[in-house]
Amino acid sequence: MRAIRVASAALLGLTALTFAAPAAVAKSDNNITPFGFSVLPSTVAPGGEVTLLLERDHGGCKGSATVTSAVFDTITIPSHRSQATAVVDWDARPGAVHRVTFTCDGVSGSTSLTIAGVRPVEPTPVPLHPGRGVQAGEGGSLAGFDLKQIGMGAALVVGSVGTAYALSRRRGNEDGT
Question: Full-prediction pTM beyond 0.70?
């Protein structure tokens, strides 16, 4: 029971650290703004989606905010919202670190966004009108046909059934029937 409590506390601590890390990065860049901002996650694969967060609770940003970066299109966060999403370009270079700049009411602050080291496979477009029908085949029914494995499987089945039969006959004799 104690292990569950320790694991829960560790998970809660890790979650709090994960959400606090982007704010700590923003503060470490010496960006003094009347509003808070962050990018979640701070590391993303090319083609991935990030959430752009803007803290409006303390009145530091009253108007619409503009978020710019070299790896996604310029995003505008309206004055009645505090977050938006952006899709990172597919051709973003893995391992690169890019600046994400938040501008609101004439004040700017920036944080970093790291592109993950693994580039995902770009989705291939599906043709709307394929030229030919489906190429049906054996479907694996004969592919990899191995007589040795089939013989061993059959021997195991026969041996199991034979053992079960022998044990059931012996048990019947012990009962006096």
Answer: no
CA nearest neighbour of 149 among 140, 160, 157, 161: 157
**How many Å apart are CA 68 and CA 71, to the nearest integer?**
9
Domain boundaries, the chain: 2-115
Question: For domain 2-115, is the CATH number 2.40.40.10?
Answer: no
User: 39 CB contacts (<8 Å, ≥6 apart)?
Assistant: 22, 50, 51, 52, 53, 100, 111, 113
Structure tokens at 123: 């989705």
CA distance 62 to 77: 11
Q: What is the pLDDT of residues 14-71, one digit of tens each?
A: 454 455 444 444 444 456 788 888 899 999 999 999 999 988 777 778 889 999 999 9
User: What is the token pair recorded at 61?
Assistant: 């940003």
